[in-house]
Structures are given as C-alpha cells and as structure tokens.
Amino acid sequence: MADSINNSIKTWDFESCKPYLSIPKPSDHKYKRGVLGCFTGSRQYPGAALLTTAAALSVGIGMVRYFGPRSVARAVIQNRAEIVLKNGPIDAMLLGSGIPSTGARLRKLTLRIANRKAVPKVLDAGALFLAGKSNSPTIITPHSGELAKMLRVEVAQIEAERIKFAKEAANLFKVAVLLKGSETIVTDGKNTIILPTASSWLATAGTGDVLAGLLGGLIVINKGNLNHKNIVEVGATAAFIHAKAAALIDGPISSTKLIEAIQKIVSDLAE
To answer: 3-state SS of the chain: helix, strand, coil percent to 5?
Structure first.
C-alpha cells in the first residue's frame, strides 16, 4: 500500500501498482484489453514512434493504432508488425513524443488528431500545448524545462520547488502532471505522489518516450474505471515501473533493454 506522508502527499511501491495491472482473462479479446492510439514520432525523431508503441505493447494491451507520418509508419511496422495503421476505435491516446514543439503545421495536425476522439490523453513533448483543451482525463509528462516554459518561469525555480510548480500546472490546466526527473512527482493539484529516486542512467535519449508509451498502455488497461482522480495513481504506477525497470539494468541503459525490463516487471506484478 502507498504510505501517507500527510493528507495529500503519498509515496508509491510495488503493492501500490498491483491494482492497476491485470492478467488477460480467458474471455478477453484485443478490444477488451484495449486500444491505444499513438501520434508520436516525426522525420526529425522517428525513434520516438518506435519506442512509444513498443513500450505500450509491453504492458499487455490489445492493440496500438499508429496515426503518425507515413515515413515513420513504415519504420514502426518494420519494428513491430502487430501495430495497426488503420483508423478505428481507441480507448486512449498518446500524443507528442518525438514531435517538435515548434512549427505551425505540426501543431495544427496534432490538434486535429487530438480532437478526433473524446478519450483519456497522455500529452508529451510537442503536444504539451494541448494541456487544458480537453474535457477527458488528461495527464501531461513534462520535464523541468518544458514545465518552466508552460508556466513562464525559470527552470531553476522549478527545480527548487518541484511539488509547488507541478501542483500549480495541474490546477492551471486542469490536468494531472507527471513531472519527470530523478525524483518524479505526479499530482492533480490536490493528490500528490512522490516516486523513489530513479537511476541517473535514465538520463538518456529515448527513456522519456518509453515512459510515455508505458503510461499510455496503463491508461488503456484501466479504461473501465479511469477518472480525473485515479489517473494520478496510474501515472505513479508507470513512473514506478519505469524506475524499477532501470534498476534491473547494470550500467548504461538503452531504451530497448528498458522495455524488456518493463515487460518482466509487469509480468511479475500482474501474477
């Protein structure tokens, strides 16, 4: 169980994660397990699409639909043949990983994709500008630099008072905030969870994309009971599993090894 520090701040552990993971039932099919839509990756950062889709699949969801650029879609299919490129029903959406935060055309396309479905959303990197523009449960995944831009403050201010500014963003944009860092914080402005300190080896390109895909997958798994409050706990579960997967790897971390470790932890926890 999560330990309460006070009325609104908790820590998170393996037992806390278990309610948000599940083993497929004999009667389950791919649509019951759930479908994540991904608008991730770009010509500049195609790898983000590969990592987010693979990480989402690592938690045992039924399907990933990919909505990104055609040139990137080819690489996605070559990497994971089970990814579906055809439009269709989805239970949640992940947007922004590997998408530049500048450029009017990409911003307009991101907004159009986001408005297709009124489903829970994970907003990362190039989709953070959509925070506050959806009535569906939404969680954003900025690092300190991105949050500083959103709140128009200095990065040093964020780093000095991470909980304060994460709460401020949650209240301002009416979203849950997963503020990435060595000590990740997840909050909706009222309920806050502080994650254990993660390995410094995670400070490499691609690991944030893996976290976003993992989070998107967990939101899909919990689609039946997801709401504006427990999305914080789903976010904490993603961050906890991400950190513990990193701890299983000796030395430098590659995103491919990280996804393999996530799959192992999810399998162990879901038993």
So the answer is: 45, 15, 40
Burial of 153-170, coded b for 16+ CB within 10 Å and e otherwise, reads eeeeebeeebeebbbbbb
Q: What is the pLDDT of residues 23-71, one digit of tens each?
A: 877 777 777 789 999 999 999 999 999 999 999 999 999 999 999 888 8
Reported as half-sphere exposure (CB side, CA atoms, 13 A), residue 157 has a value of 13
Q: Is residue 1 assigned to a domain?
A: no
Structure tokens that stand for 30 in this block: 């791919």
Locus of tokens 């410094």: 200
Query: In angstroms, rounded to a whole number, what is the distance separating the alpha carbons of residues 2 and 241?
Result: 15
- Taking alpha carbons only, the member of 261, 143, 193, 172 closest to residue 17 is 193
Structure-block tokens of residue 267: 């399998």
pTM greater than the 0.90 cutoff: yes
**262 SS3 class:** helix
Place of tokens 């039932």: 25
Tokens found for residue 12:
């998170």
- Domain at 167, CATH number: 3.40.1190.20
Give the pLDDT confidence of 239-268 residue by residue, as tens digits: 999 999 999 998 899 999 999 999 999 988
* Residue-number span of the structural domain to which 107 is assigned: 9-22+30-270
Residue 257 within any structural domain of the chain: yes
Is residue 245 included in any domain, yes or no? Answer: yes
Question: Which amino acid is residue 189, in one-letter code?
Answer: G
Count up the domains in the chain and report the number. 1
- Residues 26 and 51: beta-carbon distance below 8 Å: no
Side chain identity, residue 264: K
